[in-house]
Design brief:
Helix content is 43%, strand content 7%. It is mostly helical and 86 residues long. Helix 2 crosses helix 3.
Length: 86
């Protein structure tokens, strides 16, 4: 299956995406780039903030899941967190 990326180039995927795929986490760990995904998520969040979007419903396709992932990564490595606490 091929798709077009943001630059107009064709990209092929070896795997099809299925939300219900029980092996998705394993596939992402094997083929994904967590650091790049976090970087893109941070950029999207900053873009929304620059555009004055403050309500989550206005921030599509932006989320703050990357903050949760970073927090989990810190805790799993034994680092102390000084971020927001809910």
């Amino acid at each position: 299956m091929a798709r077009i990326d943001r630059t107009g180039n064709r990209k092929s995927r070896e795997q099809r995406y299925s939300k219900a795929d029980s092996m998705m986490y394993e596939k992402l760990c094997k083929a994904g780039d967590e650091e790049k995904a976090i970087q893109i998520a941070q950029q999207k969040l900053e873009q929304c903030k620059r555009e004055g979007k403050t309500k989550p419903s206005e921030m599509c396709p932006c989320t703050t899941v990357h903050e949760l992932v970073e927090e989990i990564n810190k805790k799993s490595k034994g680092e102390k967190s000084y971020g927001r606490h809910f």
